[in-house]
Known about the structure:
Layout: H1 10-27, E1 31-38, E2 41-49, E3 65-66, H2 71-84, H3 94-97, H4 109-113, H5 118-122, H6 145-150, H7 169-183, H8 187-199, H9 208-211, E4 220-221, E5 224-225, H10 234-237, E6 240-241, H11 243-254, E7 258-259, E8 262-263, H12 267-274, E9 291-295, E10 298-307, E11 310-317, E12 322-328, H13 333-358, H14 361-365, E13 369-372, E14 379-384, E15 387-391, E16 397-404, E17 407-410, E18 415-421, E19 424-431, E20 436-443, E21 461-467, E22 470-479, E23 482-486, E24 491-493, E25 495-498, E26 501-503, E27 509-512, E28 516-519, E29 522-527, H15 531-540, H16 542-547, H17 550-563, H18 565-578, H19 585-595, H20 599-612, H21 617-629
Antiparallel strand pairs: 1-2, 1-12, 3-6, 4-5, 7-8, 9-10, 10-11, 11-12, 13-14, 13-20, 14-15, 15-16, 16-17, 17-18, 18-19, 19-20, 21-22, 21-29, 22-23, 23-24, 25-26, 26-27, 27-28, 28-29
Helix pairs in contact: 1-13, 2-7, 7-8, 17-18, 19-20, 19-21, 20-21
Amino acid sequence: MSDVTSHDFSYVFEDLDIEIESTMNQRELCGLTIAFIEGDNIVWSKGYGYTDRAKGEWVTPHTLFSTQSMGKTFTATAFMIMASRGQLDLDDPIRKHYPEFTVNTRGDPDTEINRITFRRMLSHWAGFPHEATRGNNYDDTPHTYKEHIESIKDNWLRTTPGTEYSYSNIGYDLTAYIMGRIIGMIYPQAMRETLFKPLGIKTATYNILEAQRNPFAKGHIGDFQTPTVQVPMLGAGGVYISAVEVAKLVSFHLAKGKVNGEQLIKPELFDEMYREQYPELASTNYGLGLECFKLKGITAYGHGGGGYGYDTVMAWIPGHNIGIVVLSNDQNRSTSYEIGTKAMELMVNTIKQSREKHLKPERLKKLEGTYKAPRQPLIRIAYDDGALHLYDTNNNEKHLTPENPLEYTSDDGTRITFKLEDDHPATLRVESPSASFTARINDSPHEPKGPDKPEWDKHLGTYQYQYYGRTAYLTLTKIDGHLHIIEQTYPLKLTHHRDDVYFDAEGEALILKQDSLTYAGMHATKVDLTIESLIHSYTADPAMFRASRNIALRHIIHTYYRDGLQQAFNLLEALQQLIKAPVNGYNTLGRTLHTHGRYQDAKTCYQKTLEQDPKNKQAKLGILKLERLL
């Protein structure tokens, strides 16, 4: 691996170096090593503290640690290489390759044991308990690997295989044992030939005595040094390895199962490792030897480990081509994960800033505008402070980080993909855990002024229709020379089709008639709606008004677009006299206009809010944001 990196992470290393030193001192940790990975490069690595409490030897990135359950990823990765060669299959039952295997069951033994497959063992759905009866985390008596495997026959299955997720070392140790049988070698030799040699991993070992012939970190729990004994659970967590060699496995996964141009794992099997198994039964965030992490909405994969006085974690983010390895010989379970998470977040922030710098403002601004999907709130995309931001109808803001000029992610993991037609934005695709939909462009601040046709004027105004026994309104207005319809609290631009037929961004048709219109199934008649008539309708039916206060905000917005800001203020003030704070006053109007991109009028609303409530934080923050834009 070289020291070349496509991003400048120098400040990340400096900040993290100081933080790790501080953490080591505050928690009196024994030793720790870390490695940053970008692609197939280790871009920074360092050791901290000592290999034991006697402080005889410094930890370096080449010091060997017991990685504990992190070893499950090594086992699963080697399994996938063998599966790619056709030596075994994920859905092979265990007895196909280990016919004499037996275990205690509460149901029919043959039926239940035949349900034990490699897929279920590697995803923890095989029904095994966590530990074998001999050679486990709670057994200090020396046992060989063969004795450990043979003792599994004395275990009882927890559940019927394939019915319940239960994290288990046994499934991995059995898988490892069978992998060796198939190749005709003991498991450590099988790993060396199948995985370590192709990846260039030279010092990793499953033998404690061999590990100790290298720089070796002894396990600790605080001041107590754990016994230096052979870990018998080889497949589940028995590998001794350095941070720089774990980094080679991380790079292999970032390369999607390819090394030196050779595809060792078939793409479909590689993808299977990352897929959560049996999600219809339970959400586990576990694939095949891999855990799925979420770092501020960004998806990362990897595995941690803890035991025998060690605390370890490795993780990588395929979307950013980066990874991290943290190994500690002090079993404080929060330290490695905490440092690893911090490091990944710092690296991601660096990549985000780098991507934003490389996208020219004019390319970002091109995507500005409002977008609308059926039965979804209006979305506005705006350029601010060198980046794109997404606003919903409540003016909630999400910073968008570019993956490329047309694909973006927000801090909560929402993915936004734009599609252009004739070099202009056409659609916006939203993908998040809660919703996925495609929205069409509604309007853009960069589009030319509309035709402002004189024949539209006779149709402008408010239209009344019935909605569940209540009176509701639509407003037809002109904005920047384009015809718009307002049903709720946002205007939708109308595109002329033919004659008196128009379409909005959702694809809904509007048909204009003499004194009425038909829109989205609503038949509405034009009315002369004034502030006085609205107030009268509220006082005539106060129960309806109290049950639907959002209607008041709609009326204010309709008034704004039909008659201007001052008339909207007049209606708002009349409503405030009628009932206390029916729509949270000027602040709510300001947030709505801010969302619509009506910056100057939004600022005026926030200023009116501060006249009534000088300490209003939302209004103060709103003004600060708008001052950057005006």
